[in-house]
Write a structure and sequence with these properties.
34% of the residues lie in helices and 19% in strands. By secondary structure, it is α/β, with parallel strands linked by helices. Strands 4, 5, 6, 12, 13, 14 and 15 form a 7-stranded mixed sheet that branches.
Amino acid sequence: MENFKATEYTLKCVATEHEFEDTGWVLEDKECEEPSLVRAIYKNKKLQLKGSDYGFYTFCDWLPVSRLLKGSAAPVTYKSEALAKHLGLKNLYITLNGYSPKHGAKMTTGSFKETEAYSVCGRMSPDEKRVLVVASAGNTARAFAKVCSENNIPLLLSVPADNLSAMWFEKPINPCVKLICCEKGGDYFDAIHLSDLALKSDKFFAEGGAKNVARRDGMATTVLSAVTTIGQIPDYYFQAVGSGTGAIAAWEANMRLIEDGSYGDKTMKLMVSQNAPFVPMYDAWRADSRAMLPYDADKARRDVMIIDAKVLSNRKPPYGIKGGLYDALKATDGEILVATNAQARKAAKLFEELEGVDIHPAAAVATATLIKAAQDGKIDPEAIVMLNITGAGEERFKSEHEIYTLEPSKVFPLNVEADEVIATVESLFTREE
C-alpha cells in the first residue's frame, strides 16, 4: 500500500460525451450547456481486486483516488439462506454495509456512506488548504466525520438539528471537524441551504454530492462487492433511495462490468424505493416526467417528519439531470417502489430474526419492497437478486462500544443571512490554526 500510485482516469460528460482531464475536484464539464453528470473513465478496464489488506480500497482500480486513507472497510456480500427461503428466492445475495462481526462487516458507522467518504477524501489532494463542506441528513455526516477525524482532514458539516441523534461515534472527534445545524423543524434541504451559505467564503469548498465522481464510484463498490462474490452481474438490484446517487452508481458500475467482460453482459433491473409519504421521485417516475413535480415546501417538511427513514428525504435529488436516476431507470427498465413505515418496521424485524442483523430504516424500506415484489410474483424464483443493505448493525455496535457524540458549534435559524454564517464558520477554523 505504501507504493500506491494515483488511479489513472479521465472524465467524460454524459450529455455530450466530451472526454477531458481531471484537473482537480472537477464536478462538471464547463463546456456543457445543460445540467449533466460527468463520469470517470478508468484506464484499467478489467477490475483487479487488491486484497482484504486494502479494506475498501481493494476496489481502487475503479476509484478516482490519489491516496489511500487509514481505517476503511469494504462492503461484504453473502448468499442469504433464511430470508431467501422465506421469500422463495433461490439466489438472493445480501450486500451488507455496516457492522456484523459474523459476516466480516466492519463499517463502524454502520452505513454505506463510509464508501463515499473514503473515496471522496481519497480524491482530495493532501495539499488542499480549504475546508471540505458536507451537508447531510445524518449518515453521510457521521461517515465523513469519522474519516476526516481519523485522517486529520478539515471538515465542516451541516445537519438538521432534528437529526443530531445520527452524530454518534466510537471515539471522540478530532477538532478539525466542526458541525453546524439549521434549527429544529428544518430538513435536509435546509441543511443544504446552510452549507451553500458557508460556501460563499473562499476558505471552503463543496464536496459536490452526486456530481462528485468519487462519491458515486465509492458507492458503486457495493455492486463490485456483489458481482465479484457472485461471479456474475445480478438480475435485480434493490436499494432505498433519498437522492438516487447509489442507484446511479450501481448502473455505472454495471456498465463498467459489462465492458470488463468477466461477469457477463446483463443489465441489472434497478428496483429502488422511497418511504411513504415522502415519495417525490416515485411521483415523477409514475408520471413519466424527467422533471420533479411541484412539492410544497411545508408539505415536504411535514412528510419528512412522518417517515422513519429520514436519510431518504432529499427534495432536490439528481433525478432529471443527464446521467441521473431518471436515465438510470430508463436504461435498466427499472422501477420505483414504495414502503410505508409499518411495512419497513415489519421488514426490519423479519430481517433481524432471519439474518441476525439489525438494519437501518432505509435498508428496511428496501427489504420491505423486496418482500412485496417476491410475494407479488414480480421476481423469477431462480433470478439472481442483490439486496443492498445500506446500513446495519448500529444497535449491536452501540451495545458493544462506548459512544461519543459531536455537538454543533452553532445552530442557525432557517432564515439566517449569509454574512452571519460566513463569519461564524470562518472563525471556527481560524481558532484552530
